[in-house]
Structures are given as C-alpha cells and as structure tokens.
Amino acid sequence: MQALVEHHLQEFQEALETARRDCAQGNLLAAYVKLSAKKFEEDQPPSAWIFSAIAENPDFLAPIRIFQRELFDRLKAETPDFKALLLTYFAVEGMRSASLFDFQVLSEQERQSLVSSLLSVAKGNLAPVPAVA
After folding, report:
1. How many CB atoms lie within 10 A of CB 29?
2. Closest by alpha carbon to 95, among 82, 84, 83, 108?
3. What distance in Å separates the CA atoms of residue 56 and residue 42, rounded to the nearest whole number?
4. Helix (H/G/I), strand (E/B), else coil: 104
5. pLDDT tens track for 47-56
6. DSSP letters along 28-73, please?
7. What is the mean pLDDT of residues 112-124?
8. What is d(CA 89, CA 91) in angstroms, rounded to the nearest whole number?
9. What is the pLDDT of residues 87-105, one digit of tens each?
10. Residue 121 class from Cβ within 10 Å (0-12 exposed, 13-18 middle, 19+ buried)?
C-alpha cells in the first residue's frame, strides 16, 4: 500500500511539472491549482479504503505528509505573495479533503468559480470574481 501511495505522489509530481511548463511564466502555484482542479473533475473512486489503511498502519500517511510539506516549501520559495499562497494552497487542499470525504458542498458552477478565483490569486491578478447565484 505504501508503494502505491508513493507511486501516486510521483505521478502527481510529474504531472505538476508538465502543468508548470504549460503555464505562463512557469507559475508553479497556478500549475498546482490547474492540476488539482483537473483531478477534481475526474471520477473519484470511493475513499473508504483510506480509513482502513490508516487504522492498520498509522504511518501510512507519512509519505503524504512529507510530500505535502516539500510541495508547500517549494510553492513558498517560488510564490512572491505569501498570503496568496496560503489562500490558494489551503483552498485547494480543502477541496481535496471535501472530495476525499465525499462532502461535495459546491455545485459545479460554484466549484468552477472558486477555481477561477484561485487562478486569479495565483497569477497575482486579484480582481474579484462575481458570486454565483
């Protein structure tokens, strides 16, 4: 199971680098938002297995914790606006947690509005995005 997690993290890292090359000026934070948003659009398998895996092996999440810390440090080093980084990173991770726990609170239109707003923040363009009715 640990090897599967590590493989998934490696795939995400490679996809992040590809997304970064496709972003204007190699903006790592914008690439992170785009890649994460793309993952949210994909059908996700049920995630109940993760609770069993954690119960059997509390260290199961160790590679994920390390990966997340390294990713955050890298984003921090490359993002000039720390507040924009905090807002964007934790909003994306909140969306990821909601997906993991199947707490889909946002409609598709609201999710797209959030992703659009996060991309604006990540790119340094803080113009407000109109609220979805």
Report:
1. 27
2. 108
3. 28
4. coil
5. 767 777 778 8
6. HHHHHHHHHHHHHHS-----THHHHHHHH-GGGGHHHHHHHHHHHH
7. 91
8. 6
9. 999 999 998 888 877 777 8
10. buried
Amino acid, single-letter form, for residue 65: R
**What is the per-residue pLDDT across 20-72, written as a single tens digit (0 to 9) for each?**
888 767 789 999 999 998 888 776 666 767 777 778 887 877 888 899 999 99
Distance (Å, whole) CA 101 – CA 90: 16
CA dist., res. 125 & res. 57, Å (int): 43
Structure-block tokens of residue 93: 């991770």
Q: What pLDDT does 46 receive?
A: 60
> Residue 55 and residue 76: Cα distance in Å, rounded?
32
Q: What is the pTM of this model?
A: 0.78
CA angle 45, 50, 55 (to 5 degrees): 160
